[in-house]
Amino acid sequence: MTKYYLAVDIGASSGRLILGHLENGKMVLEEVHRFENGMVKKDGELCWEFDRLFVEIKDGLKKCKELGKIPVSMGVDTWGVDYVLLDEAGQVLGNTVGYRDHRTEGMDEEVYKIIPQEKLYERTGIQKEIFNTIYQLMAVKKKHPEYLEKADTLLHVPDYFHYLLTGKKTCEYTEATTGQLVSPLTKDWDYELIDMLGYPRKMFQKLIMPGTPIGHLTKEVQEEVGFDLEVVAPATHDTGSAVLAVPANDDDFIYISSGTWSLMGLERKEADCSLKSCGMNLTNEGGYGGRFRYLKNIMGLWMIQSVRHEFQDKYGFGEICQMAEEAKDFPSRVDANAQCFLSPENMTKEIQDYCRRTGQQVPETLGQIATVIYTSLAECYARTAKSLEEMTGRTYSRIHIVGGGANAGYLNELTAKATGKEVHAGPTEATAIGNITAQMLEAGEFRSVEEARTAIHQSFDIKIYK
Ligand SMILES: Nc1ncnc2c1ncn2[C@@H]1O[C@H](COP(=O)(O)OP(=O)(O)OP(=O)(O)O)[C@@H](O)[C@H]1O
Ligand SMILES: C[C@H](O)[C@H](O)[C@@H](O)C(=O)CO
């Protein structure tokens, strides 16, 4: 009988439930459910709609039942850093605020009064991003100390969905590392740091590694969806799952996990927490099997997504990509990682203002704006490739682009040109594939990560740009 594994992969812009199984050694995917995601304003704060997302997860499970394809296990992955605080009764405290909210402004300075930035990097190896959990918790401490007083448990977003599904409170390691409170040496919470910051120790659950079985569906969920299965933690940070699905086993490449963000980096056995690495703001996130994801967060296709919304979602991503190519001679560039693009009121205006401020030609049409974004991203990729090469003292000949952004052919071409490297684009559902792979490894369908990556390479289309 076919054994199906289910990935619940929720990105910042969309979520999907994807079934995977093996057929003659190849992985076969079937998308059963897809839905929109994004932050919405609540009480003046940018928040996630976790209740709605949980309904979507259950709707997807019901579709599995309708299809007669009951998975043996499932796992949830999402973006990084965000979390909920639960009280003793398991209720969420406060709004489910997302990482683009402005509440963390100035919280870096509050943290550095307690521990200087370089020391923090030395202990955690995590890049400074103003939205890291460490700064979000400082915002709560300053603005809503009552939540910290009442908090019994901190769960990151995938852990929260695992809790709603099983009733079990767990904290998965790869996602936890994004928060900047985990030690890369012990691969556990840095409790000393947590104490220094005055965050209640008891909120932090014992960390579990990807591949750990969590439990079965609660009676209520079973009754609603019509079946039971085991929940197994994947690399719950979506980038961790995406990197597990990079279709290569050598070490001559840099990857880009390309979706809302572009996460560009390398897989390494040790974390580099040096001052030089800190200066380049490269991060050492926890990966599958104890590896590290040494990478940079680049603003990514969030810029395209935002502009698309501002043009009333009239055009598909493929059409926008084509318009950008038609406007390819437009000369202006922006720093794709400038903070002004993290959460602007209006991305189109922000890009135009940036060009105006820097004395460049101001883009007006959608094609011109998109070409500014794509070319600026490609230039940022080229700079990041150089930083990674400088830090490792070697060069890499290929770039593997995985995730939805691998569909952006024009960006792939620009990336090949800007970096001088061969670009291998695909698979586009790498995150779901990595999620399923962790479950399959746990179930013994693959004997090793290498075997899984060979199967992934053989199972999905990969387009090469020279
Ligand atoms: N046909 C296409 N042509 C060009 N770009 C595309 C195409 N399809 C998808 N994309 C790009 O891929 C992005 C979506 O990628 P993906 O689905 O991996 O993101 P996500 O899962 O919502 O977010 P996250 O990266 O946070 O997980 C879109 O924002 C878009 O820019
Ligand atoms: C906050 C970002 O979502 C995070 O840093 C990034 O790694 C991610 O999760 C992309 O999906």
From TrEMBL:
GO terms for molecular function: rhamnulokinase activity. InterPro entries: ATPase_NBD (IPR043129), FGGY_C (IPR018485), FGGY_Carb_Kinase (IPR050406), FGGY_N (IPR018484), Rhamnulokinase (IPR013449). This is Rhamnulokinase. Residues 4-244 form the Carbohydrate kinase FGGY N-terminal domain. Keywords: ATP-binding, Kinase, Nucleotide-binding, Rhamnose metabolism, Transferase. Residues 255-441 form the Carbohydrate kinase FGGY C-terminal domain. The lineage of its organism: Bacteria, Bacillati, Bacillota, Clostridia, Lachnospirales. PANTHER family: SUGAR KINASE. CDD domains: ASKHA_NBD_FGGY_RhaB-like. Belongs to the FGGY kinase family. It is an enzyme of class 2 (transferase). Its EC number is 2.7.1.5. It comes from Blautia ammoniilytica.
